[in-house]
Amino acid sequence: MLNETKRKGFYARPEIREKRFSPIPISKETIMKIVDAIMKEEHISKDLPKVLKEFLKKRDACLIAILWLFGKRISEVLALRVNDIWIEGDELKAKFFIKKKAKVLLICPKCKQRNGRMAKFCKSCGESLENAEKKIFKPQEIAIVKKKKITSSDAVAYVIDYLEFLKKYGVSKETPLFPSVLIRQEGKEIGIKILRKTMTRQRAFQLLATFGLCPHLFRSAMAKRLLRESRGNIMLVKRFGDWSKVDMVLEYAKSIGETHEDEEVSKLE
What we know:
8 strands, 10 helices, single chain, 2 domains
């Protein structure tokens, strides 16, 4: 594990650390109650046009459902495009771009070889990289959720419902899965225009705050759920959650009573 004195960022802020590992219960039942409240438009102003309220409740319910089902970071969920999530057989699949593992690489102007961002010369042809093009490469990951026996009480049902709703508007595959919208009025007809612009993180945080939640609680719940189901399989949870180090998973394990000796941890790393 990391030495306490060397920890930075999240580890250096005890108040955030305490909140992240607090025993706030998030269960499937809790999530379904929140989604049901969203579908009843309890979080939406009554003054909004009916067509806009219909869109917002389906979009927001899908956002909550995907956070719960996949346990990904909020930035990775908001980055999803329409063609990044699909149904295949009895599975719901989503392709996430793992932003935290993104790398800046230098592209050799002569042979197009990818090189580390600190390289001075191309490792393939020896060409100088002084004027090399910089590119950000984001790893992809396809996450899968089984969707057998879907019922109205299943979070997957809200994802499927939203995807069908978007099809009616004929949105392109490159449109953000959680887009911003504008009200459009033609004469007496009021409609919406779906923009090719993602809803803001601020809006996502506001939505969750309405129900006393923050994005990371979904990720925390996923980690703890997997730890219990896998009987404390640290490396399995680490891979599923895309954590670069095992420390975070160990913190979650500790919070639910799963302890590991330092010798065991060193073997894992």
